[in-house]
Every structure is written in C-alpha cells, then in structure tokens.
Amino acid sequence: MSSEHTTSQHTPRNWWGPLWPIGEALRFLTVIPTPGLPPMTAEAIPRAIPYFPVAGLALGALLVVVGWIAGALWNEIVRAIALVVAWGVLTAGLHLDGLSDTFDGVMSWRSRERKLEIMRDSRIGVMGALALAAVLGLKAAFLATAGDGWLAAVLLAPALGRWADVYGIMRFPPARDGGLGRTFQSQLRPGDFLIASGTTLILALALGGVRGLIALTLVWLAVHLLGRWWTRDLGGLTGDTYGALCEIAEVVALAALTASMPARLISA
Length: 268
Known about the structure:
Radius of gyration: 19 Å
Shape: globular
Structural class: mainly alpha
Helix content: over 70%
Strand content: under 5%
Number of strands: 0
Largest sheet: none
Distance between the termini: 68 Å
C-alpha cells in the first residue's frame, strides 16, 4: 500500500469546504450532528466564533419544528414547555451549566479566588438552582404568551444569545490565565466581531424588524452590564460566565420579542 493511500485513509475528509467554521460552531455549541468535519481542535474553535449567531439560527430552526409539532398536538403552554426542554437538550445544557456555576460563584460574596473555585465545583448550590429556575420559567412564560410571535422569537433568541457570547469574549478580559476565555481571545482576529455583529444585525432586522432591533439593543445593554459586574468581581470572564451571558441574553430577547408594543412602534 502506498504512503499516499495510507495518508488519505487517516486524514478525515472535510465535506463542509469553506463553510467548516459554521459546522464547527454547531458541533461546539449543540448536539446537532455535523458529519464530515475533521476532529475538533483547540485552534479550530476560535475560527468558529464569528459564526456562533448562525449556529444559534440553526438551533432556532430546529426549535421551530418542535414548536409546530407540539402546537399541533397540544396547547400553547405545552408548546412553550416542549420548546424549553428541547432548547436544553439540543445544547446538552452547555449554557445552563455555566449559568448555575456562575451564580453559585458571583452570589457567594466571597473573595475572587474563592468565587472562581466555587464555579469550578460541579455541584449546584441554592443560587445556581434559583438562576436555572428563573431562566427556564421565564422562557416558558414568555413563549406561552407570545401568540403567533413565538416563531420569530424562537428563531431569533438563540442567535442573539450566541452573539452575546461573542461580545463577552471580545469586550472583557479572561479571568484565568489558562481558561477557555484566554484561549478564545488570544486567537480571535479583528474582523471576527464585525462578522458576528453584522450577521446578527441582519437577522434581527429580517426576523424581528423594530422588535428585533430593540431586542438586540437590550441584549447588548444587559450583557455589557453583566460583563462589567463579573469582571469587577472575578477579574474577567470565564467559560461559565459565557454560558450565563447566553442564557440571560436569550431571556432578554424573548422578553422584547414577545412583549406587547404600540402598533405604531411595531409598524415604524
């Protein structure tokens, strides 16, 4: 057997071509199958960061299918709960885990070092449990009262949540020398944030119009304030706080996208 044939057998073929960063974003952020991608590497994930909002849109599209099926079989409340459950399953609870760890740490009112230790602990505390209950309950409540607006909200909120992660990575320093935040930030390129933000702005306007623009603005404000708070307490952000930013941003987005607004404002 020739060496060339042996090499081709051991080198995975990339079926995604130039779109592989989108596939990498899907593989990293969700459990959506991504056949044809080379093995995941630490260097490949930062290249996928600009496409996190696109991965969020793909997640939202799958949630729409879940919502259609649940809505056809049951009422709005069951549909909302099914959506929230599917949301967690399709992401393997990645961001929910970060949410609970973050609030266990930052709400402990202890030293920076001790807070970071608490966030590393896999056990969940009272504040982490409360944060999970609040986020899941609010998501279900907003979706249950959204009426026909649930579809656009479910499509857009995951994209805005993952843009929040990109903003957190770009805007705030990492809390640990060898953590996930340090790895991401050190390999990002100047244009990466522009790609993610431009994509998100287009999605917000296309799917939500004025509501989408308001949702994006409120998400930015919430993420910026939370990032400042956690940077002051922890010295920067961590992988856990990125998860928390995503979950809270999704709640803020759903709140804005499903809220009652004057007809004149919506049609502007």
